[in-house]
Write a structure and sequence with these properties.
The protein has 5 helices and 5 strands, in the order βαβαβαβαβα. By secondary structure, the protein is of the alpha/beta class. It has one domain (about 1-120): Response regulator (Rossmann fold, 3-Layer(aba) Sandwich). Helix 1 crosses helix 5 and helix 2 (about 35-45) packs parallel to helix 3 (about 60-70). The longest helix has 13 residues, at about 10-20.
Length: about 120
């Protein structure tokens, strides 16, 4: 299984990579929503989860999520959204748009592990 992490922060991508490796998952990365859609176009058959930041340049996470869910090729790939925004309206909007989970930054490694395991059905 592969995880695609989408965040403009290299540090956050490294943290998610370490969690993915801990869960024995392969890892792909993108620096923004446009790049994520390019990776999905090439690798979607192998991607089991997308971990997607909301606030990014060029194409933000919510618009990327909306494009993913509108495309039959990516519609069923679960998405964990994360952001520094902890407003309830944002969480609700992400969930309405198809996110499987929502994690507020800063998050702990344990929170991310639990969310990824829950979404992927790993026990």
């Amino acid at each position: 299984m592969k995880v695609l992490v989408v965040d403009d922060s290299r540090m956050i991508r490294r943290v998610v990579r370490s969690v993915a490796e801990m869960l024995d998952l392969d890892f792909l990365e993108a620096g923004d929503g446009r790049e994520a859609l390019e990776v999905l176009a090439k690798e979607s058959a192998d991607i089991s989860l997308v971990v997607l930041d909301w606030n990014m340049p060029r194409l933000d996470g919510l618009r990327c999520l909306q494009r993913m869910k509108a495309n039959p090729r990516y519609h069923d790939i679960p998405v964990i959204m994360f952001t520094t925004e902890s407003q309830e309206e944002r969480r609700e909007m992400a969930m309405r748009c198809g996110a499987a989970a929502y994690v507020s930054k800063p998050f702990t490694r344990e929170t991310l592990v639990t969310s990824m395991m829950d979404v992927l059905g790993i026990e």
